[in-house]
TrEMBL record:
Positions bound to heme: C396
Family: Belongs to the cytochrome P450 family.
Coiled coil: none
GO MF annotation terms: heme binding; iron ion binding; monooxygenase activity; oxidoreductase activity, acting on paired donors, with incorporation or reduction of molecular oxygen
SUPFAM superfamilies on file: Cytochrome P450
Keyword set, alphabetical order: Heme, Iron, Metal-binding, Monooxygenase, Oxidoreductase
Cofactor(s), names only, from the UniProt record: heme
Protein name: Cytochrome P450
One Pfam family cited in the UniProt record for this chain: p450
Length: 469
């Protein structure tokens, strides 16, 4: 009361402000109890920033996942590892390849593979979704294993199958033991979920083994290109890793470089079909730089002149959170206090990705695909303004690769192709499935913008299709 009087704020007004603040705080997060574990869901960028970014030293571990991590991943999938020495070793290895100089390592492959992508869109427009997967996978395979991927490559198809199995099982409520880890103390013969998890583990690790075996065979024959694996197999780090850890390190690299790029390109295409006004503006910028009559493809050197495309890419990451409804859980490692609430060590925090992305307090007209929202002087900061790559110390190590994958692909696709609705098959952007079992998540008609653009793709992209290594 005394503080309110001294500040000149009437008590009734102070109480009203306090109630409003309490309401805002409750809206910005809510708490659930799963067994003995408390989960806190963060519903605003403010709370994600405050806790998972600024207090990352406390909020960077992971809870136990007896099914998806211990059984399905042999305890070796980096995205679900606790913040310990094993995680730091894998993270160090992944950083070495994923944060290398982009222009030296990734950009030549992204240039080549995005040309192949344009060719696939021209020649096989109904296979656009598979082409997205081949493109994203081939970039990372070129860097990690020194080989390219082809459309409908059985190994690529099976890689996406195993990744989708993981994503399916990671969703909240799918596996009761992940929500109630105490059940893992049951005798193995009573763990009814275990046989299914072990089958998924065998399928997953066999995909990784086949890719490594092919690389090792090329090394024996002397035909292997220099790549990450050739250095990795000779490194000191690999000597301290189990076979499962080694394979999941390589598998995590393949997955990190494949799915987010594939899905985000698809989301931007859905945005082009449902909100075509921004496409016309994007093309004004592309045509001004690359020619109004299909003179040449967009190049890396154009990036500083195509800030609108930077906005398109960032909006693609924000618009419809593309992997899961919530972010990967972060576990608190020490007791902490925030805005009057005390949280004990072991509390699990995550962010409500859809609630944040579609909150009008966060974004103007949040349901709309509107790249202009990111033309604010921070177009070059790919992590700013969305949570697609996660926060804090657990931010995706491959975020830069993913952003560059999407940028060059979308710049070239928007310059060369039109994307329109298929009659009778509208796109409900709120329910686009992310787990698709090889089929496109929505229908779209893909056509060249003009005969000149079709000729440009034929002229500039055929060599990329015929390049073999």
């Amino acid at each position: 009361m005394y503080a309110a009087a001294c500040s000149g704020i009437p008590e009734a007004v102070r109480q009203k402000q306090q109630l409003e603040n309490d309401g805002a705080n409750k809206r910005s997060r809510f708490t659930c109890k799963f067994g003995n574990t408390t989960w806190v869901f963060l519903n605003s960028s403010r709370t994600v920033n405050d806790l998972l970014e600024r207090r990352a030293a406390l909020y960077s571990s992971r809870p136990k996942f007896p099914m998806t991590q211990d059984i399905m991943s042999g305890g070796s999938r980096i995205v679900l590892m606790p913040y310990d020495s094993k995680w730091k070793l894998q993270r160090k290895i992944m950083h070495r390849v994923l944060t290398a100089r982009q222009d030296d390592v990734f950009m030549p492959f992204q240039d080549l593979e995005s040309k192949h992508l344009c060719w696939d869109y021209l020649e096989k427009p109904d296979r656009w979704w598979s082409a997205n997967g081949r493109y994203a996978n081939s970039v990372i395979m070129s860097v990690v294993f020194g080989c390219r991927s082809v459309l409908d490559d059985p190994d690529v198809v099976e890689l996406f199958e195993t990744l989708e199995l993981f994503l399916e099982n990671q969703q909240p409520g799918v596996n009761i033991v992940d929500g109630f880890p105490i059940l893992s103390k049951l005798p193995k013969r009573l763990q009814w979920w275990r046989p299914r998890g072990e089958r998924i583990f065998e399928k997953t690790i066999n995909v990784y083994k086949r890719n490594l075996a092919k690389c090792e065979e090329r090394i024996r024959k002397g035909t292997q290109r220099q790549c990450f694996v050739t250095d990795f197999l000779e490194s000191e780090e690999v000597k301290s890793m189990s076979e499962t850890e080694k394979l999941f390190t390589l598998g995590s690299l393949m997955e990190a470089g494949s799915d987010t790029s594939r899905v985000t390109i698809g989301q931007i295409i859905a945005g082009a079909v449902t909100y075509p006004d921004w496409v016309a503006r994007a093309r004004e910028h592309l045509d001004a730089v690359c020619g109004y009559n299909a003179e040449r493809l967009p190049q890396w050197s154009d990036k500083s002149k195509l800030k609108y495309i930077n906005g398109v890419v960032k909006e693609g990451f924000r618009w419809r959170p593309n992997i899961a409804e919530i972010g990967a859980p972060h576990m608190l490692i020490k007791d902490d206090e925030y805005e009057g609430y005390r949280f004990p060590a072991g509390t699990v925090f995550t962010w409500n990705a859809w609630a944040i992305a579609l909150d009008s307090n966060e974004y103007k007209e949040p349901e709309r695909f509107w790249p202009e929202r990111f033309l604010n002087g921070e177009e070059e900061n790919a992590l700013k303004g969305h949570w697609a790559f996660g926060p804090g110390r657990r931010v995706c190590a491959g975020w830069k690769v993913g952003e560059m994958n999407v940028w060059i692909a979308i710049a070239r696709l928007l310059y060369c192709f039109d994307f329109t609705k298929v009659p009778g098959q509208p796109i409900d952007t709120m329910t686009i499935p992310q787990i698709t079992k090889h089929t496109a998540p929505f229908a779209v008609k893909v056509t060249p913008r003009s005969p000149a653009h079709a000729e440009l793709v034929c002229r500039d992209c055929e060599e990329a299709v015929n390049t073999v290594y």
